[in-house]
Backbone:
């Protein structure tokens, strides 16, 4: 290990490259990180399979205007991300790889843009660090291997907000404002009007601190709003004239319900998102928190602000608004707070680029979190082996109260010592981190920790994630696959799923026979209510009836 290693020295060696060439290099390297193992694991219910099934049904039906599930209108999401999946499936076939490919591309685009934006707003070091913090953190990296809708939605919102900042604060050209408005519209087409709520709320609060700069160009706000609404409402206008007015009304009702009522299985306590972000953004969550505290002191407790501090204020408002908004709404899902990844990684980059990065307290807290995370991941395969070998004893103890979860643990999963490699990689990273800290080189320590975390993520994808999928849903997926090309109508009872459509490759029209499927903890009630049902198949917590 070279104790003289530093991010500053690394960036110096890259100064010979132009910004565009370096951005293209980041894009290429990112694709190499995000493409492996995309199709290794079945899609997870609900969200991954939901969007992939919408795309598959577009291909089957030839109806690319109206989003469908079970070949019925599906009003919960607009179609932009689903259209991306359709293109991917046309090129590579209907598969897990095709469903996740758009987000792998999104990851490469995101990291290359963060470098360019960070370099323009601050300097090249910040640009490189911002991209590194985002790409090497736990959940921010992992989401680019997924088939959920949020990575593109988050990117469009970030582009829109940063574009508004560039135009009004840095007096950018009108083309920047146009790009910002189009990005806002694309965010609406990706996930719905919540995009305008986020962009509008953050922009309004930021404008309160920069009234003069905004008022001097206020007419441009009207132009921005017109373009953003035109782009965002284009699909809805198309639906209206195509005779799908009921889909629009149901879509609006669903958006209101999502904000005011808990979606089944997604009602969580108010502190849910702070906890998710703290652990999910390892290894930069603690440096980011330190960076935020530093910005709060600068913005609100010092008479004079440093040059360029407006962007830090924007990121602070961005983080606070998103966190408060999604902590307040009743429905709480892990990826709802994923918008916070942009400000979190920015504050971490600023912290690591400053002299404050030598803070012993912050660095050793990061070390403790790294050791906890590494040990937890390292212990997974050993816990899996123990459960497989002592299932009867665990069942007798009654430690796990949920019958479905206990049946899940019966899944035939071949845990091996290789499964400990991801956790071992992170533990080695923690040891290396200590070494660099003792050499008074925290930048080198964080770089070493970043690489170790990347290795953990990339090895966990083939060694751990497929085994978790086998435990939680593997038996049901296998059953659905066995029903392909048999025109069987599969109906879930007592729980919600989209897997039966995607993996049985349901075709439009009524099936020749009907099969019902439930979780085991609903079996007694279902048979009592419908005594004519016969149990066909039962495995790992899932039960099929006819």
Residues:
């Amino acid at each position: 290990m070279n104790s003289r290693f530093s991010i500053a020295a690394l960036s110096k060696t890259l100064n010979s490259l132009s910004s565009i060439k370096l951005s293209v290099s980041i894009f290429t390297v990112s694709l190499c990180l995000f493409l492996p193992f995309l199709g290794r694991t079945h899609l997870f219910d609900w969200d991954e399979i939901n969007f992939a099934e919408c795309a598959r049904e577009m291909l089957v039906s030839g109806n690319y205007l109206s989003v469908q599930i079970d070949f019925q209108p599906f009003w919960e999401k607009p179609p932009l991300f689903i259209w991306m999946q359709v293109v991917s499936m046309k090129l590579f076939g209907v598969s897990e790889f095709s469903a996740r490919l758009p987000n792998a591309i999104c990851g490469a685009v995101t990291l290359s843009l963060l470098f360019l934006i960070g370099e323009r707003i601050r300097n090249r070091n910040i640009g490189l660090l911002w991209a590194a913090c985002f790409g090497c953190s736990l959940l921010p990296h992992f989401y680019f291997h997924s088939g959920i809708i949020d990575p593109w939605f988050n990117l469009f919102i970030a582009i829109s907000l940063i574009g508004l900042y560039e135009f009004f604060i840095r007096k950018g050209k009108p083309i920047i404002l146009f790009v910002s408005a189009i990005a806002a519209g694309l965010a609406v087409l990706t996930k719905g009007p919540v995009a305008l709520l986020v962009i509008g709320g953050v922009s309004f609060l930021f404008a309160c601190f920069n009234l003069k700069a905004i008022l001097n160009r206020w007419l441009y706000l009207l132009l921005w709003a017109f373009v953003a609404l035109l782009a965002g409402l284009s699909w809805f206008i198309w639906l209206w004239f195509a005779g799908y007015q009921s889909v629009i009304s149901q879509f609006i009702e669903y958006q209101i319900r999502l904000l005011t009522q808990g979606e089944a299985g997604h009602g969580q306590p108010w502190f849910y998102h702070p906890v998710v972000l703290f652990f999910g953004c390892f290894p930069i969550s603690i440096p980011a928190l330190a960076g935020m505290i530093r910005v709060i002191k600068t913005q609100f407790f010092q008479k004079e602000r440093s040059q360029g501090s407006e962007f830090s204020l924007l990121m602070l408002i961005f983080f606070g608004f998103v966190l408060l908004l999604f902590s307040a709404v009743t429905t709480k899902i892990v990826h709802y707070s994923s918008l916070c990844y942009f400000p979190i990684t920015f504050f971490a980059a600023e912290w690591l680029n400053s002299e404050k990065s030598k803070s012993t307290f912050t660095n050793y807290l990061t070390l403790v979190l790294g050791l906890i995370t590494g040990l937890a991941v390292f212990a997974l395969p050993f816990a899996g082996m123990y459960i497989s070998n002592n299932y009867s004893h665990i069942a007798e103890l009654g430690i796990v109260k949920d019958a479905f979860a206990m049946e899940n643990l019966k899944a035939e999963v071949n845990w091996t010592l290789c499964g400990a490699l991801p956790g071992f990689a992170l533990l080695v990273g923690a040891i290396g981190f200590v070494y660099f800290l003792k050499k008074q080189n925290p930048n080198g320590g964080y770089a070493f920790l970043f690489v170790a975390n990347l290795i953990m993520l990339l090895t966990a994808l083939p060694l751990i994630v497929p085994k978790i999928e086998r435990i939680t849903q593997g038996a049901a997926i296998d059953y659905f696959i066995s029903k392909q090309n048999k025109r069987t109508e599969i109906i879930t009872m007592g729980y919600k799923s989209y897997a039966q459509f995607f993996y049985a490759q349901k075709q439009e029209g009524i099936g020749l026979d009907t099969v019902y499927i439930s979780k085991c903890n609903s079996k007694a009630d279902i048979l009592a209510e419908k005594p004519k049902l016969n149990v066909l198949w039962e495995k790992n917590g899932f039960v099929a009836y006819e």
Remarks:
- Confidence is low (pLDDT under 50) at residues 1-5.
- Residues 480-545 form one domain.
- The radius of gyration is 25 Å.
